[in-house]
Structures are given as structure tokens and as C-alpha cells.
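Bumping my old thread because nobody answered last time. Still need a sequence for this structure:
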């Protein structure tokens, strides 16, 4: 009888252990390393790689110090190119000084060839490099209209004149075939300068001398853009 009771007690203990395993919600198959492997795989699937560092990025739910540092580092790396470009522009840039009637001398010379043309020459007489944007704004006597520029003569870059250097523009005064209208002789010329935006004020104008007999012009009057090289407009 004692042997039978021992076997019964052992069976009761085994049954109790089985019930305890079932009561933990995992079942008898939750043994060994199966659960840890599944947990690691799930964690790895939820982590993304940071393209900047190649290291796992912090989950957005993680409010720890490491997550904050990673975000700040990524933002800093993204801002570096723009900051570098700004510093480069500041180191190579210069303040723009415009060429106008205060820092240049201007001459107007009628030409025999090409026919009915006049050459404007602007020489930088100041101590700083100056820019000649766009084209001269001409006014003969009390003329009420502004001659237009030949767009085909626009240079690739703004003309800049170092101290002592000269820039040029050519003026077509009248049509060689007589097709122009409203012709008249002018005795005074005002040369206006533009700023860095079209039709803006570039500063004081200049009043170069004209021949004593004056200069004849008509409705075909037009000008070239300012040029650094005289050859660029020699055959215009």
C-alpha cells in the first residue's frame, strides 16, 4: 500500500506541474529558445537604418538621450552643404560699385565707319572696380523717348572695369538708306547708367561733348549693350 501511495503522489505532482505550465498562457510548446528568437526578429524588423551613419535609428517612441542625439546629428549633416556654400560666397564676394558719372569719364565719338555710327567710351577714373550693367540710356537734347538696345549684343556677363580700364557701346544714329523718320540734329547728349536690375537708377549721368555742328539722328536710333572688348561691336 505504501508503494501505491508513493506512485499516486508522484502522479499528482506531475499533473500539478502540467497545470502550472498551461496556466502561464504559453502552452507546453513554449520551451527552449523559440520565444527569444521571435522577439529578436521582430525587434530587428522594426528598426530602420540611418542613411547618414549606417547605424540603427532610434524608434520614435524612444524619448531617451540617444534618440535625440541621433536626430540632431542627422539635421546638422543635412545643413552643412548650405552653410559651406554661404561661407564660400561671402569669402569671394565683393561689394558692387556701379560705374556712373562720378567715377568715370565718358566720350562720344562719331564714326565714319560703320556709317552713321557713334562710339561711346567709358573709362574708370575711380579707385575701385566698377560694373557697367546693361546698356547706356541716351537722351539727345530734350528727346522724349528712350532708344532701345540691340539684344543680340548682350554680353555673357556684366562688364566690370578695373581702375583705368574702359568699356564701350556703339550707337546707330540713323538709317543709312534714309528709311528713318523724324530726323533732327542734336547738340547735347546725356548718357544715363543703369543699376543691377533693368531700368533702375545707376547713379549720376554723364554729358559728353558733341561736335560743334551737332549729331544727326532719326527714329532708327538704337544702342548696343556695354562691352569690355571693342572688337565685339566693331562691325555692328
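Sorry it took so long. Here it is:
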Amino acid at each position: 500500500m505504501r508503494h501505491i501511495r508513493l506512485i499516486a503522489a508522484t502522479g499528482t505532482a506531475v499533473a500539478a506541474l502540467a497545470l502550472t505550465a498551461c496556466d502561464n498562457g504559453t502552452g507546453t510548446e513554449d520551451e527552449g529558445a523559440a520565444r527569444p528568437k521571435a522577439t529578436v526578429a521582430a525587434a530587428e524588423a522594426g528598426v530602420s537604418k540611418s542613411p547618414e551613419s549606417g547605424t540603427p535609428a532610434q524608434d520614435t517612441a524612444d524619448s531617451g538621450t540617444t534618440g535625440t542625439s541621433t536626430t540632431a546629428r542627422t539635421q546638422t549633416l543635412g545643413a552643412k552643404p548650405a552653410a559651406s556654400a554661404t561661407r564660400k560666397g561671402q569669402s569671394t564676394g565683393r561689394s558692387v560699385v556701379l560705374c556712373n558719372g562720378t567715377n568715370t569719364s565718358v566720350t562720344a565719338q562719331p564714326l565714319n565707319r560703320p556709317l552713321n555710327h557713334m562710339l561711346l567710351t567709358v573709362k574708370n577714373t575711380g579707385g575701385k572696380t566698377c560694373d557697367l550693367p546693361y546698356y547706356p540710356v541716351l537722351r539727345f537734347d530734350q528727346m522724349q523717348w528712350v532708344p532701345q538696345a540691340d539684344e543680340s549684343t548682350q554680353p555673357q556677363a556684366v562688364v566690370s572695369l578695373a581702375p583705368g580700364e574702359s568699356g564701350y557701346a556703339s550707337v546707330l544714329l540713323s538709317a543709312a538708306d534714309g528709311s528713318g523718320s523724324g530726323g533732327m540734329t542734336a547738340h547735347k547728349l546725356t548718357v544715363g547708367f543703369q543699376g543691377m536690375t533693368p531700368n533702375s537708377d545707376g547713379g549720376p549721368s554723364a554729358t559728353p561733348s558733341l561736335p560743334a555742328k551737332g549729331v544727326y539722328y532719326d527714329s532708327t536710333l538704337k544702342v548696343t549693350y556695354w562691352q569690355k572688348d571693342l572688337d565685339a561691336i566693331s562691325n555692328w
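The helical segments are 2-23, 34-45, 65-92. Let me know if any region looks off to you.
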